[in-house]
């Protein structure tokens, strides 16, 4: 295959251009493993990249897409051999390294995780970076010492990819989950995932008090900005909030009060450069702690030719749950 289909982003006089086109295999970047990509997914960051709404892409040309599942075709890395089923996400894919929206990818073998038993390649991408980030957040809360007995856990951006998986995992683990959403029409969907309570995001949208009434033991926040500030102000003594997104902005208009008067901890979650051993733990836990039936309920499928349009929809908050992208 001298060329293959890919979503290519190029620098333009004003911003960027994006198109589904043929990409020359000779232009693939350095790496010791070549993968035939079968499935990818659409995350918020992918939406930013394909629409050019934020400077996600830092080299050109770029193939968009931050995660993939596929089969090893060639390998000079002793960890991998042709036929191995693998997952890759983060490590600069779609940003500094040619990414996942393509029929072929070449990456470092040290970036790959073996597809866990019991999860198909399609299911792995239904989970994707969003679901893997949700699991990293759950692991961080557990490491802090939170258990279902600690009290409720709030999940912001509940109907999105991170939120949907977080609710499904937390509810299966026995937590009382409070889902925050700006889409009241999604109430039945969120309850189906396991949310015990649903609150309107307006409750978290006003200026945050230094300390507000204690409402939850912890949280998983993919929104950032004022929403995160409010979540922190309402977190119980010695609680913790895992911050993993910035859909509403990168600012954090809060004070030190929750941290020094209630001992609240803010746990930063980075999925991109997360160490490989932690990734393996997260994917192993996802294989055990995520109900495959719920995963199917939150997933719908598109083709590679639909990614660009879907990218605009995810930024507009018009996507519920997870989107898988069929590559081959």
Describe this structure in words.
This protein folds into 2 domains: 3-115 and 298-326, Quinone Oxidoreductase, Chain A, domain 1; 130-268, NAD(P)-binding Rossmann-like Domain (Rossmann fold, 3-Layer(aba) Sandwich), CATH 3.40.50.720. Helices cover 29% and strands 27% of the residues. The protein is built from 9 helices and 16 strands. Helix 9 links the parallel strand 15 and strand 16 (322-326). Helix 1 packs across helix 9 and helix 2 crosses helix 3 (161-172). The longest helix has 24 residues, at 121-144. The relative contact order is 0.17.
What's a quick, concise take on this entry?
29% of the residues lie in helices and 27% in strands. It has 328 residues and is of the alpha/beta class.
Q: Count the strands?
A: 16
> Can you tell me the CATH class of the largest domain?
Alpha Beta
For the report, how would you describe the main beta sheet?
Answer: 7 strands, mixed
Task: Write down the oligomeric state.
Answer: single chain
The low-pLDDT segments are none
| Helix residue percentage | 25-40%
Average pLDDT across residues?
A: 96
CATH topology name of the largest domain, in short, is Quinone Oxidoreductase, Chain A, domain 1
Number of DSSP helical runs: 9
Estimated share of beta-strand residues: 25-35%
Distance between the termini: 14 Å
Level-2 CATH architecture of the largest domain: Alpha-Beta Complex
CATH superfamily of the largest domain: Medium-chain alcohol dehydrogenases, catalytic domain
Gross morphology is: globular
SSE topology string? EEEHEEEEEHEHEHEEHEHEHHEHE
Number of domains: 2
Which structural class do the helices and strands define? alpha/beta
